[in-house]
Inverse folding.
């Protein structure tokens, strides 16, 4: 690594760290003030509220990384031109691309770190923050009954029932299937199932047990059967799982499981692609910011901040439109997730070629 490369990377990283902290704090404070009415009325202890809010910081930090990348690119490039260093290096015979390649490599390193944070810290912290919010800070009332419920507890147990009463610990017309590599191994088909707190099991009543084997189906009637299902009613209440609370591998596995059990996996298929496309947005945004910075070479940092904010929100808006169309079925999942990167990447390529960089 040359001295000039280290110098340009330093010019990028300092405003990047400043922008990351600034944008993350601004969005975090906006989200906190939006929830202030619930926080003031909450009966949760202050440490719980503080933990809930603090654990949301990694999520917002990852979300604003493209904004910070664009701001750092604009500040680094425009500052390099305004200081006269650009003319000095050109006089020394350096090619124009030598100015911006270190910044582009820096944005790639940021993309790798963003992906690592998205796969490790962010899902755990965000899931914990959401759980504290919904269970202690702002608990939401649960429905007393759920109709036509399907539970995919893991890759082995699959439950469906016509009526689920979580407060009573009861299922009506439940069917519990035990799955194997070749399909369904056994099935409990009953009129009722009650949660037995002393046994920590669901007890199926008045039903038939079916075993599926090479020789065919064997049926056995029973009045009462203690099942393998050991999840209490509170854990079976249907709650949507946010893809932001899962890593890429977990989203991929959950998407396959939803599709396997008859649900629509489109939301998770789009999220799977977006978890790769979003970190790479740092490189795309940086490439777009380089020619824009040269056009704004005499502008102040306030102008750079406003341009970074406007372009970043335009990118986020474009990305959300694509995601919504992907979930709705108007676009294939990979197109929906990568459309923003493709559009802004094409714009960056056109501008760079026009500037002959």
């Amino acid at each position: 690594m040359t001295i000039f490369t280290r110098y340009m990377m330093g010019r990028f990283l300092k405003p990047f760290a400043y922008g990351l902290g600034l944008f993350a704090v601004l969005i975090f404070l906006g989200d906190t003030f939006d929830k202030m009415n619930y926080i003031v009325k909450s009966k949760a202890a202050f440490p719980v509220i503080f933990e809930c809010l603090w654990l949301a910081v990694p999520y917002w930090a990852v979300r604003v990384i493209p904004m910070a990348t664009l701001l750092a690119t604009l500040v680094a490039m425009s500052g390099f031109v305004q200081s006269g260093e650009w003319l000095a290096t050109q006089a020394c015979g350096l090619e124009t691309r030598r100015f911006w390649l270190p910044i582009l490599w820096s944005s790639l390193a940021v993309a790798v770190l963003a992906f690592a944070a998205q796969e490790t810290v962010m899902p755990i912290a965000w899931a914990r923050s959401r759980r504290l919010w919904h269970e202690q800070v702002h608990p939401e009332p649960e429905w007393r009954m759920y109709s036509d419920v399907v539970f995919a507890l893991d890759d082995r147990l699959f439950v469906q029932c016509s009526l689920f009463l979580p407060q009573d610990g009861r299922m009506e017309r439940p069917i519990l299937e035990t799955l194997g590599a070749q399909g369904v191994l056994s099935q409990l088909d009953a009129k009722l199932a009650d949660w037995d707190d002393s046994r920590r099991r669901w007890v199926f009543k008045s039903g038939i047990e079916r075993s599926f084997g090479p020789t065919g189906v064997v049926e056995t009637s029973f009045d009462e059967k203690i099942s393998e299902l050991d999840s209490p009613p509170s854990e079976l209440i249907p709650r949507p799982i946010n893809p932001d609370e899962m890593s890429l591998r977990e989203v991929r596995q959950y998407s396959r499981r939803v599709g396997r059990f008859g649900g629509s996996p489109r939301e998770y298929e789009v999220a799977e692609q977006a978890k790769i496309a979003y970190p790479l947005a740092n490189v795309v945004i940086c490439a777009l910011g380089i020619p824009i910075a040269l056009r704004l070479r005499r502008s102040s940092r306030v102008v750079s901040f406003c341009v970074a904010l406007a372009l970043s929100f335009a990118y986020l808006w474009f990305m959300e439109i694509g995601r919504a169309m992907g979930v709705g079925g108007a676009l294939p999942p990979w197109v929906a997730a990568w459309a923003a990167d493709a559009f802004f990447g094409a714009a960056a390529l056109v501008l760079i070629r026009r500037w002959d960089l």
About this structure: Residues 97 and 357 are 6 Å apart (CA to CA). The two ends are 21 Å apart (CA to CA). The chain is about 60% helix and 20% strand. The beta strands are 146-152, 157-165, 170-172, 175-180, 183-196, 201-213, 216-226.
